[in-house]
Amino acid sequence: MRRMRSLRAALTAAATAVAALGLTAVSGSPAQAATPLPAHVFAPYFESWTGESPAALSAQSGAKHLTMAFLQTATKGSCTAYWNGDTSLPIDTKSFGADIKTIQSRGGDVIPSFGGYTADTTGTEIADSCTDVDQIAAVYQKVITTYDIPRLDMDIEIDALDNTAGIDRRNKAIKKVQDWAASTGRKLEISYTLPTTTRGLAANGVALLKNAVANGTRVDVANIMTFDYYDNAQHDMAQDTKTAAQGLYDQLAKLYPSKTPAQLWGMIGVTEMPGVDDFGPAETFTLANAKEVYSWAVSKGINMISFWALQRDNGKCPGGGAKDDCSGIEQGTWDFSRIFAPFTSGGTAPSDDFSLAASPASGTVKAGNSATSTVRTSVTAGTAKTVDLKVSGAPAGVTASLSPSSVTAGETSTLTVSTTAAAVNGTYDIVVTGTSPSAAHSTTYSLTVTGGSGNQCTAAPWASGTVYTGGQQVSHKGHNWKAKWWTTGEEPGSTGQWGVWQDLGAC
User: Which residue of 2, 41, 128, 267 is most buried, as measured by CB atoms within 10 A?
Assistant: First the structure.
């Protein structure tokens, strides 16, 4: 339940704090006291540029908390931040506000994240882009009050990690916002997400934290990215997570000598990448690794487990490399989320639980025909309970139904997918969600439609000399693509998951 201060007291305190800190008030509303995050939280990254609903994926995956990626400026030199640098997605309740409120109403929350690889390499990370500390602080404040959230994340890597002026501005701005939050009775946490070696932070990461200490800036969580080591070695990714975190612990102990061991471990977060990371198969984080990391994290009492990213938590591209929308290994949809979800609040798995799987998990249908798949459930803990089944994701010209729509765990249902001649060619994820009194899981049936009278490639062909802005779509080499931010000359599909173009699928 959210604690509200009286309107008069909050307005008075907020006005006093704004005047003292030199910040510009972002609205006439009082600062609410956001519900603090649990002491131990699982908060995977959500790729906010895909057009998907964070609330829907939170429910399907069971991840109650999400780290929302990313906030950045549209152009270098700007002091205005947008989601993904997309000017159509400003810091406003119209941008993800309804989804965030839904997540909060379910007992979860989101952690907006500034920066990320693209912003950090293009000068559009807010503290690299903007040279006015007060304006940077005002942007942080606006995110906090617009979405009523208890934590901000700073994802600082590559070029931004060596920008000492930007680092100093960022920490000074954070300190201003922390002072404002304290004066208005708001609980606010700050996390830094940083690249790591297998033995802890590199020198520039330590220097960033030293600057925070020098500025009196409180860092609540140092969250290390335990993947993409690029050292040409074969890796045990679970063991590397442990050694990297131990190295970070030793570094934090020197920076914060008054903290106890429990407090130091409580400052640490780890972010994994499910399956094959960007380096390749030598750095593959498996389901067995995830279970090992989970047990270790509980034993150490670390603050957070995360992974990049929620949209990768499925097995639709086994044997492949790192992609935005799949892990590259054989797995069920949301397998990693299910392993890590109980970490929040130190919880445990439901006493009565079940699994859900579609067999076969994919099929190809000529428009006008139909296909079936068996949805299997089984008891994984406790006793069998009633599981209500729903299906979603069917595109125009396709209907999907389940018979029966309610089963007892251990029984099966038949998924029938029917298409019309007007169905649009392409591949679609049909999601079956099962809900019992104590748990919820989902599975995905990948449907490929051929021979339809429709065609997904309705977007204009990509042209190398054309300027595209975030959200614009093109067709290229049999796929549809959506621009994540401003671009010109970058060929869709040529720069991998870190490139500007989001692959929307074959057509």
Answer: 128
